[in-house]
Amino acid sequence: MLLGVHCSVAGGIENACVMAQTLGIDTFQIFTKSQRQWKEKAFTIEEGLSFKAKMKATGIKIAFSHCSYLFNLASTNEELRNKSILGLVAELHRCESLGLQFAVLHPGANRLLTETESIRQIAEGLKLVLEQTAGLKAKVALENTAGQGAAIGYKIAHLQEILSIVGSERMGVCIDTCHAFAAGYDIRDEAGFDSLIQEIDSLVGLEKLWAFHVNDSKGELGSRIDRHHHIGQGKMTLTPFQYLLKNFPHIPKVLETDKDNEMDEVNLQTLRSLIDLKDI
Fold it and tell me: Considering 143, 161, 216, 264, which one is annotated as catalytic?
């Protein structure tokens, strides 16, 4: 079913696999470094081999990372832009070392530019990143956004434009259900979610759809508020999550909700209750 959570790496990268085994999941997302700091890190060959072995031993079928929230490829501040490019290069090298298939990236934002200019700025930055990581298998999955502030990516067309300019097989997308809903995509019923999927297929191509972030929304439809909520407790219904489980069992679906009070277990139980065994 490829259903999982964002796993903590507190105390060591391999603890993500321990957490995954405890939860009985077969996919996960992690931060490979502190998401709030620019300080980089690298993993040794031995650390990488050990992590890959741990993933295999605990039944993880696919894992990926989420990039630092500090990255902003749309920035026109030269220092920030360069740090973002170098940071993403380092992230892809860590993914390669650990056997993570791709890194999820928020495209970026810039109030000083038009959306078209921001999209071009992001794409040109990604070109530089891919040039500097030529030969790696690790890829980049652009995440749709809720549209807060000047964030690019609240329209699927934004993601398509970036992918088209970059023109690389190492680029794909990750769709966050909360972000889509907050951006104005009404996915509360099957027809609405199917409409979103058709838009992704026509603009991006389903072969480029590499992951889902499975989150309910605290904000209303079209609110542009990026606030994740527990499954079934937000403004969305359970229908979109059932739709995902039925139609995309082969694509990783990862929770990014608060972990207080063992809510990962609760959310996973809710999602598993929606699975029709005949669809597996």
Answer: 143
Amino acid at 118: S
228: annotated active-site residue: yes
Interatomic CA distance for residues 115 and 254, integer angstroms: 29
Quick check: is 66 catalytic?
yes
Exposed / middle / buried, residue 131 (Cβ in 10 Å: 0-12, 13-18, 19+): exposed
Provide the H-helix boundaries in 99-169.
115-132, 156-166
* Given 36, 46, 260, 262, the catalytic residue: 36
DSSP code, position 276? -
142-168 residue pLDDT tens:
999 999 999 999 999 999 999 999 999
Contact in structure between 172 and 129 (CB atoms under 8 Å): no
Q: What is the CA radius of gyration of the chain?
A: 18
Count the residues in the chain.
Answer: 280
- Interatomic CA distance for residues 143 and 146, integer angstroms: 10
* CA atoms of 79 and 62, how far apart (whole Å): 34
> And the tokens for 54?
């741990």
Contact at 8 Å (CB) between 236 and 180?
A: no
Q: Where are the beta strands (DSSP E) in 74-198?
A: 102-105, 139-143, 171-176
At 54-85, the pLDDT tens digits run: 999 999 999 999 999 999 999 999 999 999 99
179 in helix, strand or coil? helix
Please name which of 165, 88, 80 lies closest in space to residue 130, comparing C-alpha atoms.
88
Exactly one of 6, 158, 213, 229 is catalytic; which is it?
213
Bin 271: left if φ > 0, else alpha if -120 < ψ < 50, else beta.
alpha
d(C-alpha 99, C-alpha 137), whole Å: 9
